[in-house]
Amino acid sequence: MKRYFTSLVASIFLLPIASSHVLSAQDSEPDAESDSLEDDLAGLSLEELMDVEVEIVSKKQESLARVPAAVTVLTGEDIRRSGAQTIPDILRGAVGVNVAQQNANYWAVSIRGFNDVFANKLLVMMDGRSVYSPLFSGTFWDVQDTVLADIERIEIVRGPGATVWGANAVNGVINIITKSAKDTQGSLGKVGFGSDLQGVVAGRHGFKLADDLFMRLYGKYANWDNLPRPTTGVSANDKYHTARGGFRMEWLPDEVTELTLQGEVYGGKVANTYNVPPTVFSPAAQANSGTPTPGLSGVGGGHLLARLEKDLGNDRILTIQSFYDRTVRQTVVFDETRDTGDVEAQLNLSVGDRHSVALGTGYRISGDDIGNLTINTVPQSRVTHLVSAFVQDDIELIPDRTRLSLGTKLEHNQFTGVEVQPSARISHVLADNQVVWASAARAVRTPSRVEDDVRLRSVVPTALPSPPFAPGGGFVPLTIFGSRNFDSEKMLAFEIGHRSAPAPGLTLEIATFYNRYTDLRSIEFTPVGLSAIGAGGNDIEGEAYGVELSPTIQLAEWWQLRPSYAFQKVDMRGVNGTTDPITAREEDQSPQHTLTVNSRMQLQHSVELDITARYVDQIFVPRSNFGGGTAIDSYWAMDVRVGWIPKPGWEVSLLGQSLMDASHQEFAPTFVSTRPAEVQHSIFAAVTRVF
Predict the structure, then answer these.
(1) Rounded distance, CA 152 to CA 149, Å?
(2) pLDDT digits over 574-586, tens only?
(3) Where are the domains of the chain?
(4) What is the predicted pLDDT for the residue at 168?
(5) Judging by DSSP bridges, how do beta strands 129-130 and 122-126 pair with one another?
(6) Which of 219, 220, 402, 466 is the most buried (most CB within 10 A)?
(7) Residues 654, 206: contact at Cβ < 8 Å?
(8) pLDDT confidence of 648, banded at 50, 70, 90?
(9) What DSSP string runs through 5-18?
(10) What is the DSSP letter of 243?
(11) What is the pairing mode between strands 122-126 and 172-178?
(12) DSSP for 7-61?
């Protein structure tokens, strides 16, 4: 490890200094017409970066410098220079975002703790369309993809966003924003091959249908190989492939109106080996954690979204958006088909000289059909409705200096009725190059379909340390039942932050947070003979607190360094005499310390060298399907990308990932017992052509 770390330091700090082949960044930038290789923030000074506009905090455009929240923006250039080929891998570059790969097709992604493949406190959107699953209040990351060159930026809020985005935007919000059809005229083609990502083919063509009508067509296919199992190194049987195609269209009939229509269809096959629990108890069943059952899952779906933006004059902007989304997932342990329809309207307006108000309303309907397998629900089909309204007022207490934001979201859902989620944020500009902010907010995570209606057959080890299980060997069959009495999980969040550009070539953001959680989900166990049953409850509470530090340092015109550090601590405990021996121990599923150092260099002859090293602290996954839990060691990982732009519109890149060791484990299975896998070092080469 010392040898690898020494090599890393030499690569980042000594190589460019010793090199005599360095040019300034402006002498070797890609051609301005190569939209996938530019059109981002790379050409701005770091002070100008503070004036980048984001919309994720208040659902309206506002300067990043004045945003009273911990926000990260990953630009299209950040994505390209990272070399990452999946959205979870891209998100590793954001401070405070916990990303762990369980196997080739399962990812655990969260913000500020509570990480899990089925993490349920993070709202994820693509172009404002929610992609979280009401089945478990989380995201299936294996089907979240697009032509990565068409992503304009990814906006990330670390902390609650429930006041404008609603329930489940508890610990954070991620919005993946793609480029407009007008900004992607012309064609793009990409072909890549590698050891883990064995093949990817992506293409896009943008064209004008009329002077005010623009369209983009795109398609992508990706094929991922199996990863190795821990210790043995044999295949985890987790390969998968997906294919998708879609379009985006913009109509600009006048200077104040924009109509967007976009859609996509996708499909694929995902392999996994599930540990299927026994249907009846027997001595043989007690001796193991289930029967390994390989299977090839079918995934598919599609969506259609329409959005109208209209400038009504007098500082009034109206936005109306509606989408339909269909998802299908057929696995060895459960089947789900879901149809969702959503419509929302928002009006931004100014009231006097000091009030900027955003208000909106929305309605969502979602219907499902869940198959009767290891995981099933009663009833099998259900339709849920969600009605919401929000208002937020940004008040200039001292013009251009101090701003107070007050707002709340009101929602009515079929699980818990009316939920109120208010927030208060204040920001103050200390000087032209620094701002401080503080916030307090309440957010809830409403019950999912699983928590209300599930019937889950599983097994638990008899060696669990508390009642109703006595010490011993082997496993006990367990059936978990959903509960209509399950209440919303609640959080009170407090945050203080400071954002500044203290010197030329330097920006710095520091955010500290304290979150108080009550009524967290528990599973209350009751022994029944030689087996057990579990029912959903709300008998866990706790706190999470931490600090996040993310500077950007322009060491030279050709060399930029982006280190970041996050510390987070989660403390959970049972209350009300809970019989759940496991859930409180999930406080250790997220790393306490995460350190990332990204070095971005522009060398001679249009050569780019990008090195990213990250340290992830040890974790413990208590609800794994191997004994009483799985301890996962801390690890260092290093990714190196070399890019070459031989002529405008061409890019050749070579990426090496996880180069610090042969392989390492990052997570373990929890509620759905699949085989774990290790992330191994890999290479990937790609050629991209823009014309």
Answers:
(1) 8
(2) 999 998 888 898 9
(3) 2-690
(4) 85
(5) antiparallel
(6) 220
(7) no
(8) very high
(9) HHHHHIIIIIHHHH
(10) E
(11) parallel
(12) HHHIIIIIHHHH-S-B--GGGSPPPTT-TTT-SSSTTS-HHHHTT-EE-TTTSS-
| pLDDT tens per residue across span 388-422 | 999 999 999 999 899 999 999 999 998 999 999 99
Region label for 231, one of left (φ > 0), alpha (ψ between -120 and 50) or beta (otherwise): left
CA distance 101 to 485: 33
Cβ pair 158, 123 in contact under 8 A:
no
pLDDT digit string, tens, across residues 436-452? 999 999 999 999 998 89
Residues ≥6 apart with Cβ < 8 Å to 519:
487, 488, 489, 490, 538, 541
291 or 601, greater pLDDT:
601
Q: Which amino acid is at 361?
A: T
Cα separations (Å) of 352 from 58, 179, 357, 404, 663?
Answer: 19, 34, 10, 15, 60
DSSP H or E run through 615: strand 607-616
Q: In DSSP terms, which residues pair with 265 in a beta bridge?
A: 245, 302
Q: Which residue type is seen at 457?
A: R
Q: What is the mean pLDDT of residues 509-532?
A: 86
Contact 163, 186 (CB under 8 A): no
* Contact predicate 222/242, CB 8 Å: yes
Average pLDDT over residues 149-170: 91
The 10 Å CB-count burial string (b at 16+, else e) for 510-540 is bbbbebebebbbbbbbeeeeebbebbbbbbb
pLDDT digits (tens, 9 = 90+) for 223-265: 999 999 998 889 999 999 999 999 999 999 999 999 999 999 9
Q: At residue 37, does pLDDT exceed 90?
A: no
Pick one of 3.30.830.10, 1.20.1250.20, 2.40.170.20, 2.40.110.10 as the CATH number of 2-690: 2.40.170.20
Residues paired with 14 in a beta bridge: none
Alpha carbons 427 and 164: distance in angstroms, whole number: 18
The phi-psi region of residue 480 (left if phi > 0; otherwise alpha if psi is between -120 and 50; otherwise beta) is beta
Summarize pLDDT for 178-229 with one digit per residue, the tens.
999 999 999 999 999 999 999 999 999 999 999 999 999 999 999 999 999 9
Beta strands in 485-530 (DSSP E): 489-503, 506-528
Cα 328 to the center of its chain, rounded Å:
21
**What is the mean predicted confidence (pLDDT) over 43-48?**
47
Tokens of 481: 């039942």
List the structure tokens of 213: 């009508």
**Which of 413-431 are b and which e, b meaning 16 or more Cβ less than 10 Å from the residue's Cβ?**
bebeeebebebebbbbbee
Q: What's the pTM value of the predicted model, to 2 decimals?
A: 0.90
